[in-house]
Each structure stands twice: as C-alpha cells, then as structure tokens.
Amino acid sequence: MTQSPVQPPPPLPAPPHSGGGGALRGDVQVRCAGCRVILRVKTGVVEFSCPTCQLPQMLPPELLSRARPQFPQSQQQQPPPIQTLPPPLQPQLKPMNLQPRPPVPAHGIDPTKMQLPCANCQAILNVPHGLTRFSCPQCHVELAVDVSKLNRSLTAPQSTTPATAAPPVPSPPPPEEVNEEAIEVEREEDEGGTAGETFMDYRPPKLSIGPPHPDPIVETSSLSAVQPPEPTYDLRIKEELERSKALSCLQIETLVYACQRHLQHLADGTRAGFFVGDGAGVGKGRTIAGLIWENWKHGRRKALWISVGSDLKYDARRDLDDVGATCVGVNPLNKLPYSKLDSKNVGVKDGVVFLTYNSLIASSEKGRSRLQQLVQWCGPDFDGLLIFDECHKAKNLVPEAGSQPTRIGQAVVDIQDKIPQARVLYCSATGASEPRNMGYMVRLGLWGAGTSFSDFNKFLGALDKGGVGALELVAMDMKARGMYVCRTLSYKGAEFEIVEARLEAGMEAMYNKSAEFWAELRIELLSASAFLPNEKPNSSQLWRLYWSSHQRFFRHLCMSAKVPVTVRLAKKALSANKCVVIGLQSTGEARTEEAVTKYGVDLDDFVSGPRELLLKFVEENYPLPEQPEPLSEDESVKELHRKRHSASPGVSIRGRVRKMAKWKPDSDGESDLESEADSADDSNDSDDEFQICQICSGEDERKKLLHCSECDKLFHPDCVVPPVTDLPSEAWICHSCKEKTEEYIQARRLYIAELQKRYEAALERKLKILEIIRSLNLPNNPLDDIVDQLGGPDKVAEITGRRGMLVRASNGKGVTYQARNTKDITMEMVNMHEKQLFMDGKKFVAIISEAGSAGVSLQADRRAANQRRRVHLTLELPWSADRAIQQFGRTHRSNQTSAPEYRLLFTNLGGERRFASIVAKRLETLGALTQGDRRKVMAGPSLSAYNYDSNFGKKSLMVMYRGIMEQEKLPVVPPGCSTDEPETIKEFLIKARAALVAVGIVRDSVLANGKDVGKLSGRIIDSDMHDVGRFLNRLLGLPPDIQNRLFELFTSILDVLVHNARIEGSFDSGIVDMKANSVELLSTPKTVHVDQMSGASTMLFTFTLDRGVTWESASSMLEGKRRDGLGSASDGFYESKREWLGRRHFILAFESAASGLFKIVRPAVGESIREMSLSELKTKYRKLSSLEKARTGWEDEYEISSKQCMHGPKCKLGEYCTVGRRIQEVNVVGGLILPIWGTIEKALSKQARHSHKRIRVIRIETTTDNQRIVGLSIPNAAVETVLQDLAWVQEIDD
Hints:
Blueprint (H helix, E strand, L loop, with lengths): L27 E4 L6 E4 L5 E3 L6 E3 L5 H4 L29 E2 L15 E4 L6 E4 L5 E3 L6 E3 L2 H8 L25 H12 L7 E3 L15 E4 H4 L13 H7 L4 H13 L12 E3 L7 H14 L4 E6 L4 H11 L7 E3 L18 E6 H4 L9 H9 L6 E5 L17 H12 L4 E5 L28 H25 L3 E2 L2 E2 L5 E7 L3 H26 L10 H21 L1 H13 L3 E6 L4 H11 L2 E2 L5 H13 L14 H11 L25 H10 L24 E2 L6 E2 L19 H41 L6 H8 L6 E4 L4 E5 L6 E5 L10 H10 L5 E5 H4 L16 E5 L6 H8 L12 E7 L5 H17 L11 H4 L6 H14 L17 H17 L4 E5 L8 E4 L2 H4 L2 H8 L4 H25 L7 E3 L3 E4 L4 E5 L6 E10 L4 H13 L8 E5 L9 E6 L6 E5 L3 E2 L6 H7 E3 L3 H14 L22 E9 L5 H8 L5 H4 L3 E5 L6 E7 ...
Parallel strand pairs: 12-17, 12-18, 13-15, 13-16, 14-15, 16-17, 20-30, 21-28, 21-29, 25-28, 29-30, 33-43
Antiparallel strand pairs: 1-2, 2-5, 3-4, 6-7, 8-9, 10-11, 11-19, 22-27, 23-24, 26-27, 31-32, 34-36, 35-36, 36-42, 37-38, 37-41, 38-39, 39-40, 42-44, 43-44
C-alpha cells in the first residue's frame, strides 16, 4: 500500500512580457534542494515545486527582489497580483524550463535545514540543525553559528521598496521558528532505534531428525528472521544416524542443505557450493565427516579435505570413525610421493586425501606440483567433495590496494576452476570477516553471470557503500537461498570484562626513560648515517628496521606492564577454586635463544626481551663507516700498481688490447686514435723497431731494456741513475715514477689514518650506546616471569610453540635454560602432554600462544577431571580478530559444565589501544557475517569503543595533524588546556609538534629564527596524514603523559566528527531495531522478485507503528520507579520553557541508575535513545507540580501527534514527514535483497532528506504475532519509484 502524494503548490502564471521567446530579465535560476537539478523560475513565483522530484520549496530571501516582475517603461498594464497558495489542484503542472548547463551559482531552500547568510560572501546556506561550525562551500571561509543572534536574523524585516519601482511583492511568510524539540526527535529517528537482543535460541526450523545438540546453540536475531528453503533432499544415511545418534539435529540439517545445494548449478555451468559458518566448538569436523559418508553411499568415493595443519588428520580420522565411516581411508598427502596417486606404487584408489593449504602450492624439484597431482587424481568429471576447512587461510585473494594476492588464495581458486563439477564446501567460523575476504568463494554465486554484480569488485563496491548493515544482509540472503548456515555456542554465562592495567610508578619511570632513549637513538642514527656515502638517511632499510623494532619494543613493554595484574587476577581465580588460561601471541623465544647462544645456558636472571631486542638492533644496524685497510711498508707500492692495472690492463680507449712495448715519441703529430688504428693495421710488422731507450733514444741492446710498469717507458740499465746491474725479476719502476708514487703513498696513509680515526670514533659511540642499553632497567620476558610467579613449570601447563625455557634454580639463585620436553615425551607431543595435565587437574594454570594452541580444547569438559570454571586472561591481543575468535574458542566449546570468564587486559596507554583497535574493527565486521550480526556479545560496546581505524578515524587524524601544525584551528580544546588561557593551548601545540618530530611523523623539522625564534616547523607527508595505524604505533614510543594527551585529543576530534555525522544522517549504525508500543502488518506483503534457482522471494512489507505512550502508562512508569525506591527528587513530568506554534512540549524524565543521566519519555514517540543531564533538563524544561496540567498537556500532545508531525500543519514535506508523528507507516523490503540492490540504491538516491538517501537495514517485529522482518527501510516517498523499477526488472527477468 502506498500513500497518495501531497499536491505541491503549482507554479503561478507569469506576467505578460514583450519581446521574443527569451526569459525575462527578472527570471532566476535555482538549484532544487532535493534532486539538485538547475531550474529556471518565472518572474513573480515565490513558492514552487520541482517537476522532477516533486519537492515543495521556496526562493531564499536574497533572491526575492530578483523574483519581482520587471516590465518595460512603455508597458502600462499592471501585473496581476501574486497569488497566495490556492487549495490543492490536480497535478497538471507545466514543467519548468530546465536548462542543462554547466554548474552555475544556484540556490534552493532545503526545508529540513536552517537558512543562514554567510558573513563573508552573503550566500544563503542550508545549515543542518545543531551544526555550529562549518565552512562556506562558496568562499571557503570558516563560519560559526551565533545562537543568540539566530532568531533576530530569521525574523529580520524586509527592506521597503521605493515608490518608483515595480509594485512590491508581498513578503513571504516568515520562516518557521526553529523547533529544537523537533530537531532532537528527527535526529533520533535518523539514527534509528536501539539495539535489541542479539541472539535467539536456535533449533532447525524445518527438520526434526536427530537428537538435540548437547549445548545451547544460538543464532543472531538478524539471521533468525530469515527462513531457509524447504528441505527436499532425502539422506541415505538417515536411518543409520538415527540409530547411532552420532550427529545432532543441527549437524544433520547442515548435511541436508549442503547436499541439496550441491544438486544445483550456477549460471556459468559450475556446481553450486555451500558455506558452513558455524562458530568454534559447534562441531564442524563431525559435520564434514557425515557429508563424506553420505557421498560415499552415493558412490562418490573420492574426497579432498584441505585444512590448516597436518596434525588435524588425526581429528579427521576420529570424526569419520564417530559417524560410522570406518572403511573410508584418510591419506595424508605430505607422506605421499609426487607421482600419480592412483598408480600401483602409491595405490590411493579412493578415500579422503588430506592436505594443508601449504601443500596446495608445493611442488617437487622436478617441477611437478601437488595441484596438478590432485587434479589428475580427481579426473575431469570429478563430482565428489572438495572441502576447504578453516578456509579463512585463503582470505587474501583480493588484498588491499598496493599488495599482491597470496599464492594460497590463487591456488584455491585454480583448483575450483579445474574441477568445475566438484561439490565445494567452505568451512570457517571466521571465513567472511570482511567482504574482501570472500573473493575465493566463487561457487556461492553471489557475483558473476546471472547476478546483479558482473564481478567480485562490483559486489565489493556495493557492500562497501552499504556499510555494516549490507554485510548482515549478505548473510541473510545466503541463508534464504539455502547456501549458508551459521550457528554459535550460546555465550550465556560467559562474562566479558575489559581490565585496565594502569602503569605502576616504577614501570612509568622505565617507560619514560625508554621513550627518551629511543628519541636520542634516532638522532644518533641520523648523525651517524650522515657520514656514510651514498646513504639516504630517511628511506633506507635502517629506518624500516628501526620503526619495526621500536613497535615491538614498546609492545613488549606494554605486555610486561600487565604482568602484575595478570598474576594478581590468576591468583584470585585460583583461590576461588577456578582455573586460569592465559593467552598471548609472542613467547620471546628468539630473544631467549640469542641470549643463551651469547651468554650460555646458566644465567643470573631471566632474559629481558626489550633489552635483547635493542642490543640486537644496534649491534647489527648501527651505521659504521667502512674500516680502511692499512698499507704495509713493503707491499704498499706493489699493491698500488696492482690496483691501478688490475681492472683492465692495457685496454685502449677504443676497447682494443694495447701492445705494451709499442711506443711513439710525443713529437709525432698523430692522435692516439690514429696511432692505435695504425697499430691495428700494421699488426703483422715486427714490434722490435719501436723499442728505444727513453733517455738516450738508442735502440742498442733491445732485449735488456727495462720496462717501467708505471709509465710504460723503456730504459737502458746503464742510463738510469743509479745504474741497474741485475735485471729485476719483478715489476720495475723508474726514478721519476717512484718519487711520484711515494708522495701519493704518503697522502694515502694520511687519508687512511683519518678514515681509521672516524671509524674508531663511530665504534666507540656504538659501544657506548650498547653499554647504556645494558644499564637500562628493562623488564624480563613476560612468559618466563608469569610462569615463575605462578609456581614454575610444575604448576603451569605451557602450550606454546617454543622449544626451550628458562627455569629458576632450586636454590632460587640464577636460572637455567632447558628443553621443554623430556626423555619420555617427544617435542612433537609436548603440547598434547601439557594439555592433558591441565585437563586432568594436575595443573590449574595454562599459558597458550597462537602457534601452540591451534585446535586445542581447554573448556570445562564434562568428560575431563578438571571441571573448574575457566578464567581466560588475554595478556596480549592477537594481530587480528580472526585469531582472537580462535583464541576465545579454546575455552568456550561444546559439552562444557560452565562458560568461561574473559578478561581482556589493556594498559592505560593510549597507543596500546592500536591493537584493540584492529581487533575491535575485525570483531565489528566478524559479527556481521561470521555470526550475521555485528552486535554480538564479543563485540560489545566496551570493545567497539576502541575502534579508531575507520574512515572517521582517518579524517580525525588529518584534522588533528593540521591543527597541531597550525594550518587549521582545532575543533576542540586540547586536553589540559583552557580557552581562557590561550598560552596553555600554545604550549600544548609546541609539545605536540616536538613529540611528532621525535617519532618521525613530522619530517624535515627546522627551528625558526627571528620573530618566530624557537618555533618548530616541518611537514607531514600525505600518506601519513590518514595512517591511523602508524600514528597509534608511533604514539607508543612517547612518554605516557604526552602520549595520553595526544590520544585524548584524537578521540575528542573523532567524537565531534561522529556526532556531526549522526546529525547529518551519514553515520552507519548497522542494523537498528524499530521499536513501538504497537506494530501491525498493514496488508498482505507484496512479492516483488523471485530467485529462479532457490525459489526465494523478495517481499515489500508495510507496517503501521504506534510509538506513543498514554498518560496512564507514563504515570505507572513513574509510580513504579518510586515504589521500587529507585526514583530521585528530580523525577517527574516537565514542560518545555519555550513555545512552538503556540504550544509547549511535555516529557517524563527519570534518573537512570546505570548512567546517572535522565531517561526521557515523550507522549508521541516513547522513550528517547539519548539520555539527558540534569543541567540540560533544567535549562530546557521546567518541572510541573500540577499533575492535572501535566495530564492535560500530555493527552493533548498524544492526540495531535497521531495526525501531524512536530513541524505543524504547514510542514513542507506534508504527509511524508514522520518527525514526532505518533502513528506512522514503515515500508521494509525483506527476503532476498542482493538481486535488487541496484534498483533500491537508485530509488533512494533521488530522496530529498539526506538521511533517506542512505541504505538503512532495520529490524521490526509485530506485537501481535511476533513476526520478525529484517530488511531495507524504504522511505514512504520512494515506495512508488521502487515498485515501478522492480516491476520493470521483473518483466526483463520473465
């Protein structure tokens, strides 16, 4: 059902004019406030509607004078009076004269905003309500709204017109008063509703085979709003499963839908694939085994199972045995040769070939690849299973701009291309954490032939524009089409808490000292690099290593700062009869092994990771000049000759080999080139005729002539002084050459001495730096420290990838390095042994790293002896949330007696939040597609508050940098500063610039002279301007005080930008719940599209919402608060101090126990999302003592709001406006969305209100029958366009 559009005011008849067909001089050009097209408005028309988008609007005040009719002097006829708005007419309006021109300065009024003049160029600007600072789009001057003068400027009288002028146009009605209450309600409506419950209990909706799952399973409420297709596939192993009860009902459901999907083909002829997105611990392995067994029964006896680790083959064998498939062999590919798998030698005729992703890209020395081997084994008509287990390993097929796709990602796509009829199964709890990571899932049919997106990049672009809500819609679409399941273990009972580990006094001093040291080291390295030839000080390998070491050093320091809190929390948990799992990423093994190699296995104390890292960096990378080779007395001359002649002895300038004995006197007028040419031509002549003595010019005794190896001249032994009696056996030098050589040697020795001096000075500086590093008080390796403080290796199970560890000696003096394994246990099995000790209750603390804990189950398993509740401490967050989810899944799995308590530890250093930022960003989008809804428990509000690496974060960083460099004014007052004391701001900016220089963000810094003496200038390169990651990384290397102040400034600017985006309606808030006291489906939903393959449809639902709160409900709310003793003296009914349209607004306010702010309830729209402080409440409202007055006002507003919006009866958007309207219609497109995405995007782009142009995903639930719909919100004004476009799309499809 759609509403009939409000009739817009018609353009009025233009007065007659003389002349040809040109426009009158009084005509004005304006830009439509809705669709932005240029319109030409006839003289005298003040109010008009756009013929394209039908938006009613009026001329801005400064164009009214130009709109007055201008007539020639000769024309005496009076123009007809300007009409006021007539009653609504039929919409048979002539279109206005549209002029397709290049952009010209044009204006139009946007009725949803304030119209204010620019103080500089006087242009009338459309300013969003609540925006106080902005720049003029025409003259680019920074402007601020003076609220005190706002009303005066809005009600300024029109200037009078001289009597001689044309008859005056009646002034337009004064602009409507700015209704602050309406602005606030509109803002909340644009943001959407609140987030409701995130998870729903899950049970298969259309299947009832098999026992229930052993643990509570949930699905996000977004996904639960979508029904999968009807199951039509009949399992061959159904009776067997019902007898054995090996698979639960939800695992059997996966089997049915996967087999059903594998019967379908995509438009390009390849077989359709299926995606299992179940969370960690749900039992994906056993589901895969069931699928292999089902296909085996159909005669498809070959399967490829690709996973992350070769050890998981034991799990695969166990799972197959559990489902009864004991006859299916598991063949690990890493144990097989590269020859044909089905040959007599190898003998793999059928069964499962189990391999890792790394094997997929492996090849033999002879060039035969594993990929070719597998394709050959499968054969061209292979229609068995191709299983990508933990398929997130292939995620970087389509990487960020500037990087290359990974070989694994490419190989995953290649094998799918080569066996087009394979039954592909994608399995991962984190497989689609970002849409970019779905590039390898080519068999889902979300892009390509027969879809709305021609290729993956188009699909990616559409999702990026749609924001987080779009990701959630993709998950819903996939479920509706029967290609996706995504359930997770319920997190009910699991506790999440962020624990801030504040730096202790000693640690803070250590941190300050370290930050100073790194800044000094940078200056030292810059100075040392300046002495090196051919060295660019800022772009060499040295600086890449410097900044990576810098980041690792301070990350290590942050980790060490959390050790005392970790130990305290662990001991507290142990005393409460719980057990502890501590998660970290890096073990510091490399530093430990380097120290053991250097100092031996017996040490005084544990190794300090930061110290060893610094020592290694300086030892290997300090720029030393090359040490010169000294010249020895006897070899110096010979060495010099050798060097002079060794490179290309006797090569002429034309490249020919010169004959050494040939010589011509200088008196010959020929050039060298001519003589060389001659010598080449006369090569057959004897060389003897040219051999003459340089002194006597005689040719006697040619055979005895001495040849000078330096100048190539010939001498008789008797002619030289002193005469040479014995012919030298080695190279000989004449006297003049010897004199020259000795001078050169002397100079050379002086030069070498200078180089040696420089080298020794640099070496001395390097040794001094190393000595300073050794004297620094730096913390020990956190892993060794924690193990030691919690009772040593006898009490702590270590499940990590390191081979050895440092253990404190029994007498407490010193530590010894020893291997982690013993004679009885191999290194390969040591982690399994440690895990078993923990599960058997012999050790109650386990420390896990990513390398050691892949696939390990540490939950409070009902089958294990140790069933104490797990307290999971994350000492160090992983680099990505994909890995964080995997780590959380170690302690939260099926068949557990209790859910774990999670404690995420952060220091109070702003920079360390970089790592939380990465994880929060991933968790936010992981929730969107991995679990279908980004607001899942793990990404709760406390953690998502740490997400700074977003578009708003990048913009905030640029604003902050420009403010610090004094290129622009900062939009907020820096922390610790005051506007009353401008010198505090100036002082902060100086400190901030110096800090950014110290961490290499400000480059080419110079201290100014003259009037700006002492002022630091420099530049920040463009790539750094938006690099939030680099800023947060480098921030770590600053002293805590300035670090936290800079971080606070950054987050304050971010808050301002996000706040402004919310006001303007451009902030992406993901899925929002539409809440109301009554939600009813207005009519039968319309089917607007049907998917040919799955039969899933797209529906248009129209709901009626009643958001109001009756007087009785409001009174009982207040009474309930008072009865429970939760009320405060300020609770009660209030009325607005100001009137709008002759009326006041009424509210109920009561204090919220959680925040200390006041919850606001309005008669028309119910409870507000935003809470209000007491001071704001008292500024805007006055408390009512008379309940009768409150009742009358409340009921009056409740009644009026059912018929009109808060802008009153003359609202320019008419019936389309829903601001503060109690009863409203909401249109939602639900079901399949991706096939019609482009159509909806096009229709929304034409909307007048900015917030209506954005694609918004909403969730709505009817109050009578609890029918839940999740889909795209379609504004009432856009419904007709969407229906028309979809009907056209449907015709084409048909």
